[in-house]
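Note to self: the last two entries modelled the partners one at a time, which told us nothing about the interface. This time every component goes in together.
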Amino acid sequence: MKAVCDRAALLDAITLASGAVAQRSPRPQLQCVHLAATRDGDAGALTLVGADGEVALSLSTLNVDVQAPGECLVPADKLRQIVAAEDAEPTLTLAADGDALTITGADARFNVFGYPAGDFPAPPAFPTDAGATLGVRSDDLARLINTCVFATARENSRYAINGVLVVAEQKTVQMVATDGRRLALARGAALTGPAEPARCIIPTKALNQTLKLINDPDEPVRLAITENQAVLAFGHPEEAPRAVLASNLVEGAFPPYEDVIPRDQDKKAVFDTARLISAVRRAAILTNEDSRGVRLALTPDGDAPTMAITSRAAEMGEAEITVPVESYTGDAIEIGFNPQFIIDALKVVDEAQVTLELKAPNKPGLIRTGPEFTYIVMPVNLQ
Amino acid sequence: MFGSGSWLFVDVDAYFAQVEQVARPALAGRPVGIVPTAVETTCCIATSYEAKRHGVKTGCPVREARRLCPGIALVQSRPELYIRTHARILEAIRTCLPITRVCSIDEAACRLGANERTAEDALALARRVKAAVRGATGLTCSVGVAPNDVLAKVASEMGKPDGLTLIRREDLPERLFGLALDDLPGIGPRMLTRLHAHGVHDTRRLCSLSEADLAGIWKSVEGRRWWRRLRGMDVPPVATRTRSVGHQRILPPALRNTASVRAMLVHLICKAAARARRKGYAAQRLSVGVRCLDQPAWWASAAVPATQSTHTLLRVFGALWPGAELRSPIRVDVTLHELLPVGVAGEPLFPAARAERDLWRAVDRINAKHGRHAVYLGALHGTLDAVPVRIPFSSIPDLELPA
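The predicted structure of the combined assembly is written out below.
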């Protein structure tokens, strides 16, 4: 294999592929990136593949002068460090010799020892016979992921909620994530979708990787759900995909999320999103790990409803922030929330206004922005 | 007068050994060593004054104890007896005055009331405490009275056994000059090395240094606190909160196999979870470990969603457990870390999680009412009797919680 590559494009591709590479593995091959140089007439391409046993990513970088097609398998971290360090070079030449790869710049030559290319798993491919497929615009997919992935469980103890539930039916798609104390539900439109409802739980890592792969809001993305994998292909269906990401699905039963969406909230307050997040952030300054809650006190007060957000931390102090309420229906209420849970949701909201819906101090709160985003959060006891 | 912060400190003499001597009259007046298990490889965790006179001190290996004191009676510890006796001691002290802080299984500190701060009143009260403890348990104790809790503890050590020592503020700091630096509670080997490095080799020198000097040696505000304590000022304790709950066990020889280790870890997780619930905390991390004689220790740790549920913790443990055979396991450890007040953690969103939490709260209530093993996990059936109660030193096990 011998190929001359644009250094910046190569660095971007290696950085992305490295995201799928195992940080630690008893198989050193899984800490490598697989490079394959191909030539189709005058057009050359370099395809990089990273895999950690759970997620596999294949992406191609074009505008490569492939002088000799071939493949190699080299440690991802060293390759990325070298390509990043050669920042004065517009191009770099990659040449495989046996299991080693030589990277040559104007004044530098690196010979990196690797492994036989055949030791690497087969690159992911978009299946043609998947049980369910759907197509989504990149920007819609990014919004769906961004507005729920933050709510997944960080701990590895509850496998089913260590991922995002994807439910697709015809031309609608919804994503749900929960960590057991809050739940985010995002809805969106699909370009194409399965006739029968299809659902799967995709690991958080794969979805975060997906976000990094999105660079053109108009680009379509196809998602295929097989028995044990979700496979995403980036690019127009009639062309070879720019990137393919395959992920094992999270096993287990997702909790019955529809049952915990409150339907009888009788106190509804509309806020300017930016003002509300600013107020919660400021109130959170005077909280600590023992008083990790802010108190929201809503008063109808005729035509000028307000909300006071207060916080108190022993031996630290207390804060009170007043937030104007655009509109309010319902009686006065005081309720405590973990401020970070509120900030997490408001951070991903694009809309200028959000609605906070409440029932009672010991019942879940609900944040909405139209039908696209629903967020349920359990209160904390501030007594 | 002692000033505004006078303290009385009670320390039961050679506690474990004395309890055994009282419980078994045949041991009275004999040298006694308390051992955790009946094996020759262990060491004495406590000794009677009669044994100490032969040079057998806490930590002395059994073989060495037999060599130093051929007539020594080596007695296997009975933690439950010590815990129950501890409760009776506290009850006896409380008939005389309120206890401010239980410092360990055999120590309690009491702040004196406004009308108990003359030397005569304080000494009379101390004599009443000693008589009450003796009357209730048959045990002798040493009592120290001083202007602050640390000096009161120092005073209690000055007259052992069965002593009563008063340190007046006006006698300070000269009264302390006869003490070694490590007679002061809280000055251990590392601090001693640091003091020596700064040219401080005795208490007289320590007391001559300025507040700033001590802050420099301690490299913290703790040095300033020591400067104040040594002058008889009452230094309020630093507010702390529980950040972890842990249990450890040295395995008796019969349990030194993989299956028993797993059962023991499950048992200790149940116990730690019950303690966290009792204290009102939810755990956010579980760590487990096994120390072995013939292979490196096995340790594993995982974050958990803030939980009070024993089931959740056991599920995490199930994922952490290596499955491989452990060679010569000798000690097991379980710790719940990153404890969060349960109100701050918030209610679980899903009914199933709330039901699981409520189930364990109900189990705790049943066990509190009907005995600590009234309800337990089926997986522990047959193993409960094999789990020895941990020997209580500074933390006193709650006999309502699982053993």
